[in-house]
Each structure stands twice: as structure tokens, then as C-alpha cells.
Amino acid sequence: MQEFRVKIGKMTCVNCSNAIERACKKIEGVEEASVSYVNSSGIFLIQNDEKRKEILEKIKKLGFEILEDEQSLEEYKIKKHIELRKNLLLSIVLSIVVMYFEMFDQSFFSQNMQMFLSFFGIFYCGRDFFFHAFLGFKNKNLDMNTLIVLGTLSAFIYSCLEYFKVFNEGYLYFSGAMMIVSFVLLGKYLENKIKLKAENYQKTLEKIDTKKARILLENGEVKEISSAFVKAGDIILVKEGESIVVDGVVLSGSAEVNMSFLNGEFFPVLKKENDEVQAGGVVLNGVLKIKATKKAMDSTLEQIKNLVFYAGNIKTPLATLTDKISKYFVASIIVLALFVFLFWFFKANLNTAFLRACAVLLISCPCALGLATPIALAIASSNAARNFILLKNPAALERLSEIKLVYFDKTGTLTKEELDVIKHNLNGDGFKKLCEIETLSSHPIAKSLSKNINLELKGEVNIISGEGIIYKEDDDIYFIGSRYFLDSNGIDTKECDQFFNQFKNLGSIKVYFAKNFRCLGGVLLDSSLKEGAKELIIGLKKQGIKSVILSGDNQESVEKIAKELDISDFYSQLKPEEKLQIIQNSKKALFVGDGLNDAAGLSLASVSMSFSKANELARKTGDFILIKENLANILYCFFLSKKTKKIIKLNLFWAFIYNVLCIPIAAGFVPFITLSPHYAALAMCFSSITVVLNSLRLKNI
Q: In terms of DSSP bridges, do strands 509-515 and 476-481 run parallel, antiparallel, or are they unpaired?
């Protein structure tokens, strides 16, 4: 299976994206499809490259346009926005002229002008509606355009039949038909303008120039290369006015760096030796020599770009539900409009029946329903990125608001990744060998012991997650791990236990070291809490959320941290499968972890969080990635989740209540209130605008 991305033009509403999605899912060999109106993009999971051509042909057949890249998409959006504005202005002028003839001139010439001008205005200014409605009908897809076209054509054809004396009701609705087009175009123009504004953050990211990098070679020469080829360990030079192309650490120099793309702050940040920097920052003054800590394509900037792209394409439970409703909504409204027409035809007259049915068609557009969830999630994802939180799965943002239990890994999650060595009873060669073997593991304890050691061991290693390391070299076999690990391998640890008991108040993390089934001694380490850990636990308690520690470390170490954080429930000396079982048996639980042995738990939890510095598998598995180590950002995730869900529910409530209240009014079933077709069209358009405006409240929370 492979992923295929494409940028799509000419989508006028959420129902367009749903139509493409449904059509492409029917193609054999397409496992999954997700198309976003908000992002003008689609993501498809396909079996082979041949399916790409079929998908592109299907999209074109539906009447949409394939765009080559982000630049062409941007140019296309600007072009369509200008075209929409021109059509809107022309249709307004024509509507005013037609209305003038209808109100102040009843002559034969006036009727001719009304028919001619409205014909031009409807079929020229509103041509996109007819084009998409025709293709949708041809491909058995009914959407917003279907309702608009049926309503507009009903008004125009009815007026033409009156003009040619087929009917003798005495009413012409050429101005009404023309005003329907004008009001719909007005709504689409305002909605489009607001949507473009909401996409400003993504545009800002795409405009950051990180295409070229200057690499400092070993011989002192400077070479310019594509940033795509920058790898971890490379030394890059960044001068005044240039963008940093990769995440790294400042080796020398100092400069003010504009990080507004990431933190939204107007004031620049002073970066100096040993400070971390992120790709996308712009050096305002000075020169920095930076050592890359990862590939340019793995930088924070690229992760944000990628996740902002995905944000609008992932379907949440609420979005999936509304898509299913929208699928059958249009057909139901057409049947309802027919019923309303027949009802009023027999109860009143043809004129009343026509007006009521036309109003029902025009007021019932499902766009507001379709926009309710995706645009809110897209804005929330951009907001999270500004606050150093990468939202990989927007559906998790919806679920997080329901979480009442949080499981924390301890080492590297609640405590700092680097531990301090307090005491050890190994001789010089023994301690050196222990540290060398620990370079083979990515566990936080191993990293603390093996820092600043660059050595490639040639022996055979077996890392047992959550327990320890077995290393074989020549005829020797080494064991590193907990007392339980050494005991399970038949190694006596009593002598080492006596050493640890002398200093039990100084440190809580014990590492035992054995060679050829004989314990050589051990190392005592201690950890300190990460920034924001205490504030996080207090904040969760205030929200009625319970915190539990799940750790493979010894009882003393876990209990010490639990007391510092005032956490009553904790588990120690857990094997990975035991940790996994606890998470698996818990419904609606959040798991926060960072290690390789946490990856399975992160994938099984209802919601999961990891860190940008975490193990690669943990990063790929987590729903949320915290760029900064400050744990208080988890509280912001909860706040954003609840705020987003509240706004989505308000959007959905408005979309549903709007139709519940307005359809009976449009149908004429509410006494003393009538609604003409063109006012129904105006009300329909502003329902979508209301949803977009409400979602924009998430932008600056």
C-alpha cells in the first residue's frame, strides 16, 4: 500500500469533497480516501501507481481540476476568488436592473428585458452551479448545487411559461431567480474570503524559504546544497535575513531569531551558544553556526507543514456522522419540496405551490452541516502548532475532552531524560564497560550513562524491553538491568544490595552489572521532575482527571516521584506486556510516554501523547507530539479539546436547528410567516458563513 496526495480545484462546498471521496472509494485498488474541502486536497491509500491515473481521471470526470503543487493551488484560489467577485458584482447590477423593470415598468419591453438580462445573469454568473449540478446528476451525486439549480430554474422556467401565456397567474419571477444567484454568490464570496483568512497560517508555513543551506565542510570551505540533503551532524551557517533550514543546536555566535511562525510572538528570541533552534526561524541580525540534530525533512517545520495538511483530511466521528447525513439529505429535500408543491397546488394555487417548493429547495443547503467539523479542526490544529503541539490525529482532539484517566510513563516523561550518577561500586574498567554497552540502548537510563561516548561495539546485543540488556563479546556475557532481571538469570545480587542500602536516601534508580553470571556491582542514579510536572498534575486534579504512573523502574524510584507529585496510584517494575494490559483494559484513557517500550501502549490508548525528542516509533504512534518538554502544555491540549468540541457542537446545533426551524417556514407551514425564494437563498448562504465565523473563534484562544 502507498499514499497518494493531490491538490484539487473547483470544489465549491463540502459536498463536492464528499462526492470525490465516495467516487474514488469505488475504484478497485483504492483502500481508503479522504478529501478535504477546507484544504482543497485529497489523500488516497492505493495498491499501486496505476491507481493514481484512475483517481485523477475520476476527479476530472466529476468536473474538478487537478493542481500541480501548493503554488498552483494558491494561484488558483486567488484567481477563483477574483472571478467570484466579478460574477457577484455583475449579478448584483443585473439583479437591480431586472428588479427596476419589474417594479416600475410593466410594458412588453420591460418583460423582454427582464427575461433577457436574467437569462444572461443566471447562466453566466451562476454557470459554475449549473456545471457542477449537471456533472453531479450525471454521476448520481446530489449536492448543494443541485438544490440551487433546481430552485433557480424553477423560478426562471415558471416565469418563461408565464411570459408565453402558458400560465395565467400574472406573476413573473425573473428578478427572484436573478436575486437567488446573487445571494448565493454573495454567500460563497464571503465564505471563501473567511476561509482564505483561516488558511493564513498554512500559507505562512509554505512561504518560509528553507530550500538552500550552506554547509561548513571539514576543510573549512562552505558549500551550498539543497536543504533536503542536510543530515544530522552537519554544520550549517545562517546569516542575517536567512531562514534556519533544520532543527539543531547553536555551536557559536548569537543572533535574534524571529520564531513567530511557531510561537506567534511578535518579539524575536535571542539564540546563543548551546541553545536549540528550530527550522523556519529567521535570523534578524548576527551569524549562527548550527549543528543539525536531525534531517531537514524531519524538522519541526516540516512536521508542522505535514500535520497542518493532514488536519483537514482526517475524518472525526462527528464529521463521519454528518457526512452520512449529508449524503441522503439533498434527495430527502427534493422529495419534501415535491410534497410541498403538491400540497399547496391542491390547497391554494400554482403560484403559491411554486413559491413554497422553490423556497424549500433553496433554504435547505447542507453546507453548514458539512463545514461544522472540518473547518473547526483545521483552525484548532493550526492553533496547537503555534503553541508547540503537533496534532497528528484531529479525531483525538475530539476524544480528549472525554478523558478522565491519564497514564504516565515515568522516566523521560514525568522526569528529565538525563539522570545523575550518585554512587557506584564498580572499578574503573567495569564502569567504563557498563557505559560502553549502554550506548546500544535508547533508554533514558542508558543515555545518562553513555553520554559523550562514541564507540561501536562489535558484540551481539539483546535488549529486553522494560528489563535490561544481555551483551555477548568474544567469550564473555554481560547483564545490565534491575535486580529482578539479574535474579531471573540466576545471578546473586546480595553484595550489591548491601551497597545500595547504604545510600538509599540519596538515589532511587539502581542499575546492576554482571559479567559471566557474577555481579560486579551497580550504579545508583536519581532523577528530577520535568518542568511543569507538578502544575500538570494539580491542573488535572482540578478538572477531576485521575493520574496514574506506569513504570518499569523499581518500587523506590516510582514511589519517590509519586510522592513528589502527590499521585496516589502507581505501578512499578512493569513489563511492557503488563503495562499494555493495563492500558488495554481502560476505556477513555490518555497515555503519555516517550520510549520504544511505550509505542504499543500509545497505539492502544484512546488518546496518546509523546515528545518530539522521543523514540521514533513513539513519535509516529502518538496522537499529540509535544515540541517543548514543558508538561503544562498537556493542560493546554485539554483546554483546546474542550473548546474545539464546544464550538463543533455549537456549529452542528446551528446547522440542525437552522433546518428544523427554517424548512417549515419556507414550506409555508408556519402561520403568518412567508419566505420568498430569494430570501430563502440569502438565509441559506449566511448559515454557512455563521459556522465559519464561529469556528474562527478558535484562532486566538
A: antiparallel
**Domain layout of the chain by residue ranges:** 208-308, 389-416+529-627, 420-526
The topology under which CATH files domain 389-416+529-627 is Rossmann fold (3.40.50)
The whole-angstrom separation of Cα 193 and Cα 195 is 5
How distant is the alpha carbon of residue 484 from its chain centre?
A: 43
What pLDDT does 697 receive?
86
539 vs 129, higher pLDDT: 539
For residue 209, how many C-alpha atoms fall within 13 Å in the half-sphere facing its CB? 8
Mean pLDDT of 634-638: 93
Under 8 Å between Cβ of 184 and 237: no
Burial class (CB in 10 A: 0-12, 13-18, 19+), 101: buried
Q: Which three cell numbers stand for residue 261?
A: 511562525
What's the gap between Cα 321 and its chain centre?
18
Which tens digit of pLDDT belongs to each residue from 106-156?
A: 788 988 999 999 999 999 999 988 888 887 777 777 776 787 888 788 888
Confidence of residue 311 (pLDDT cuts 50, 70, 90): very low
* pLDDT value of residue 282: 78
Please report, as a single letter, which amino acid is at residue 212.
K
What's the sign of the alpha-carbon dihedral 384, 386, 389, 391? positive
Residue 131 burial (10 A CB sphere; 0-12, 13-18, 19+) = middle
Looking at residue 264, its pLDDT comes to: 43
In CATH, 208-308 is 3.30.1360.180: no
CA atoms within 13 A on the CB side of 158: 24
Nearest to 529 by CA among 600, 632, 406: 632
Mean pLDDT is lowest, of 18-32, 163-177, 575-589, 649-663, for 163-177
Q: What is the CATH number of domain 420-526?
A: 3.40.1110.10
* pLDDT at res. 321: 62
pLDDT at 655 over 80: no
Backbone angles phi, psi at 316, to 5 degrees: -90, 165
Phi and psi dihedrals of 133, rounded to 5? -65, -40
For position 594, what pLDDT does the model report?
79
Parallel, antiparallel, or unpaired for β 389-391 and 405-408? unpaired
Write the CA distances from 106 to 111, 165, 172, 178, 273, integer angstroms: 7, 15, 11, 18, 83
Which residue in 371, 375, 247, 264 sits closest to 311, CA to CA?
375
Separation between Cα atoms, residue 256 and residue 690, nearest integer Å: 41
Q: Which of residues 563 and 230 earns the better pLDDT score?
A: 563
270 beta partners? 256
Instruction: Tell me if the pTM is above 0.70.
Output: no
Taking a C-beta distance cutoff of 8 angstroms, is the pair 290, 254 a contact?
Answer: no
Residue 242 cell numbers, joined? 536567512
Element (H, E) at 358: helix 350-363
